[in-house]
Structures are given as C-alpha cells and as structure tokens.
Amino acid sequence: MASMTALRGSFRIVGRVICGHHYRACRRVQSIKSDYPVIKNLPLRYSVQCRFFRSSTVTSGQIVQFKLSDIGEGITEVTVKEWYVKEGDSVSQFDSICEVQSDKASVTITSRYDGVIRKLYYNIDDIAFVGKPLVDIETDAVKDVASEEDVVEAPAVSHEEQTHQEIKGHKTLATPAVRRLAMENNIKLSEVVGTGKDGRILKEDILDYLSKQTGAILPPSPELEIIPPPPKAEPSPALAKTEPRVATKSVTKPVVFTGKDRTEPVKGFQKAMVKTMSAALKIPHFGYCDEIDVSQLVQLRQDIKASSEARGIKLSFMPFFLKATSLGLLQYPVLNASVDENCQNITYKASHNIGIAMDTQQGLIVPNVKNVQSLSIFEIAAELNRLQTLGSTGQLGTTELTGGTFTLSNIGTIGGTYAKPVIMPPEVAIGAVGKIQVLPRFNSKGEVTKAHIMNVSWSADHRIIDGATMSRFSNLWKSYLENPASMLLDLK
Is the dihedral of CA 380, 375, 206, 68 positive or negative? Predict the structure, then answer.
C-alpha cells in the first residue's frame, strides 16, 4: 500500500538554497517481523517517507563588480593585453587578474580578495576605462569588499597608491613597485625598516637595505639579468659593429602581402608618441652636430669589459655617454631644465634623470636612469641592463618611464650616423649618437691613422637655449669621451 503527494515549495539546507520544484513525497507501509523474543511472533507495520526532488543550487556569495581603479599619471583608459584568469576560475588576494597597457606603461592588475571569476567585461585588445567594471567576482567577504579597490601590481603606479601586506600579524605599507623590487631581490619586507609616513617602506629603503647587505646597489635577481654571450674570439672593433646588424637581418621575417587595406586604432605607446610629438611641434628646435674620435674610449671599454662581465653586468658604451652627459649638465644646468606650457618659468632640475630611447616590440619607449650624477659607470651599466630586460619583456612601468630631465638616443645600434632628434616636452634638449665607424684620420703629426669615429646630433629648445651654450656643452661632452681619463677629475 502506498500513497503519493506532490509538493511545491523551498527548503533551506546549510550552505545552499534548494528549490523544491517537482518535489514528491512517497509513503510506503511494510510488514516486518521483530527479532526480539518478547514480540517475535507479533507482526509489526511501519511506514517510511521517501522524498524525491530535482534541485538547483544557488550560491550564497555576492557578485562584486571589480572596477579598474585610477593608476595615476592622468590615465583614463588602457588596453587589455592579456587575461590571467577566465570565467569560473578561483582567485585569491594578490593573484594576477590581467595585464593592461596604457600610453605610458604596462600594468598588472591583481585582486585584493578571494572569490570566483564570474564575468570578464573585455576581450584581448579591447579598451578598458578607469572606473568601469573589469570583471565580476563572486565572494563571501562582502563586508570586506565594499570599500576595496583593485591592486596595481607593477612599477607603473604612483607613489600615492599603497597596498597592505599581512606579515606576521601586522600590516606592512608599501607600493606595488616597492614590493616588486623587494621580490626581485629576494627581500622580505618584514626585515626592512620603513622611513615613510606611518612606517611605509619606500624604494630608497629597499636600496639602502641592499647596499648594507651587498655594499652596492644591485640589479634585479639573476634570472632577469641580460646574460652575456658565450666567450669567443674577440673581433676587431669594426667587425664588432657590423656583426649584430648582419644577425638582425638574417632573422627578419618576410613581409606577407595581403592585398587588402586595414584600419586599426592608435593605442598604447604609439598613442603616447602621437601626444608627445604633437606637443613637440610647438617647440622651435635648434640643431647642432659634431663628430668624435672615441678611439681611447673603445680601448678603455675593451680593457674593463671582462671585469664587468665577471660581475654579471654587460658593459656597453652607453654608460660612458650618460656619465659624460651628466658631467656636462653640471656645467650647463639650463640643458637639464624644463619650461611650463607658456614658457613663462624655467625649472632647473637637481637630478639628472637621463632618458634612453629604446626600440621594443611595443614601439619606441624612453625609460630613464635616475640620478646619474650620483652613480658610477658600473652602477649606470647595471641600471641599463635592468631597463633593457624590462623593456624587452614589456614590463617597464611609470616609475621608469616618467621623470626624465634629458634624453640621449643611440641610433647607432641600428645604423645611421646623423639624426634630427625631437625634444620630448617638458625637456629642453636631446641628443642622438650614431654608429662607431673605423675611418682614416690625420693625427697630430699629420699622419693618416685608423680612428673610431662617432657622430652626435643635438636638438635644443631655442626659446631658452642659444647656439653657443649648446656648442660649449657638446665640446665638453666630446672632451670627456675623446679622453676618458679626464672624467676622473670631475667624478665624485
């Protein structure tokens, strides 16, 4: 005998809500015999209620719109370059969400809370806007999410933005750029004493900690360094200049002719170039060119190259160019200045943050070496190695790409002798060095000798810099490179 009843309703079970559609209750009555002696011969009847239902599960977490926060420098939109998650993935605090690229730098966006990705608002190469949703994250920590913003885990954030890292029961204040620097050098933030507001750890604190541990400012961890090529027979300087270019030509990909026009938006670093060069058109440029005999510099670099590589640093000519530039700027500070938009005020910069134009897969970018006036040749080389590594992997951030006071472009690595460099506002001067060529020249005795000749091209803002000042600066710079030992007299 059985009776069946159809029911509808909802039933709450711990951890989920069950919708009771098509719920059935079935009551069955059966006879059994007892195993107890007293009632062994008495037939018993019992009934059981069996319930059958089809359930649908609704999670109890809240969906939170993860918005793209302000990453500083007046950036209002970015291009989504890569997603590190997909819908349905679980994320934890500080897990990478995606990589975006502004017109200044690439930035990695990370999460501050645990949850599950429910929706991605953009595809690869889409434009994402600051303040608009980036992803939807389902999380139970609603009370903690209400006031949270996304974390920018890259050197591309301003110093005003800070993140909190839980370390042994207390919070350590540090910007994402500082945390990245500490991570690259295997430093625990708990071991560093912060000198910033409320004990915030600054970049200088990390560098001070490094100097105390090693006696010098080190480049990033070994895996990020540029590894020198295997030792081989040293070619002549002329061959050394031509071999890299031959190798570059051999790996050039053939151009595929499609036969169709295509239109694509200007974005990323290319968009930044449009903005910067449009502003540069307002500057009256003054040009000055000269040639330099760098034979002694070529020999000096050859003498100390092995020692530098033994310390893990690739030594090019650029560190010498930058140091000579800095020494020249000490004598002619107007070249290390900036002007306001209306050219009513001149600001003389104390720091020599010299930019170096760099050709990357993302386009032309100009990171700068900070405080060249206080760095040695070796320290400049180490910093250049770091910037080249970050540039080749697209990881240069706002810290490296902003704050420049003077720019030097080395077109000689690609080819060419003279150039007409364009000033990068608000800077007032820029230089471009060409390739080093072995050419015949007359020495002091009138004899024809082999010389290593390099050309340099300068551009200056003619509103505040006259030709005589530019010429004197160039002559001083030239003297340092033609006679490198003379730099020792002015090094501090």
Answer: negative
Name the most confidently modeled range: 138-152, 157-171, 462-476.
462-476
Nearest to 426 by CA among 310, 345, 369, 372: 345
pLDDT in tens, 357-368: 888 777 778 899
By CB atoms closer than 10 A (0-12, 13-18, 19+), residue 462 is middle
Catalytic machinery residues: 462, 466
What percent of the chain is predicted at pLDDT more than 90?
Answer: 31
Q: Which amino acid is at 243?
A: E
pTM above 0.85, yes or no: no
For position 249, what pLDDT does the model report? 46
Q: How many CB atoms are located within 10 Å of the residue 457 CB?
A: 22
| Model pLDDT for residues 289-316, shown as the tens digit of each residue | 999 999 999 999 999 999 999 999 999 9
Query: pLDDT tens digit string along 328-339?
Result: 999 999 999 999
| pLDDT per residue as tens digits for the range 60-83 | 568 888 888 776 666 788 888 889
Over residues 260-274, mean pLDDT:
79
**Burial profile 470-482: b = 16 or more Cβ within 10 angstroms, e = fewer:** beebbebbbebbe
Residue with tokens 């625990």: 188
Q: For residue 376, is pLDDT > 60?
A: yes
Per-residue H/E/C for the chain:
CEEEEEECCEEEECCEEEECCCEEEEEEEEEEECCCHHHCCCEEEEEEEEEECCCCEECCCEEEEEECCCCCCCCCEEEEEEECCCCCCEECCCCEEEEEECCCCEEEEECCCCEEEEEECCCCCCEEECCCEEEEEEECCHHHHCCCCCEECCCCCCCCCCEEEEECCEEEEECHHHHHHHHHCCCCHHHCCCCCHHHCECHHHHHHHHHHHHCCCCCCCHHHCCCCCCCCCCCCHHHHHHHHHHHHHHCCCCCCCCCCCCCCCCCHHHHHHHHHHHHHCCCCEEEEEEEEECHHHHHHHHHHHHHHHHCCCCCCCHHHHHHHHHHHHHHCHHHHEEECCCCCCEEECCCCCEEECEEECCEEECCEECCHHHCCHHHHHHHHHHHHHHHHCCCCCHHHHCCCCEEEEEHHHCCCCCCCCCCCCCECEEEEEEEEEEEEEECCCCCEEEEEEEEEEEEEECCCCCHHHHHHHHHHHHHHHHCHHHHHHCCC
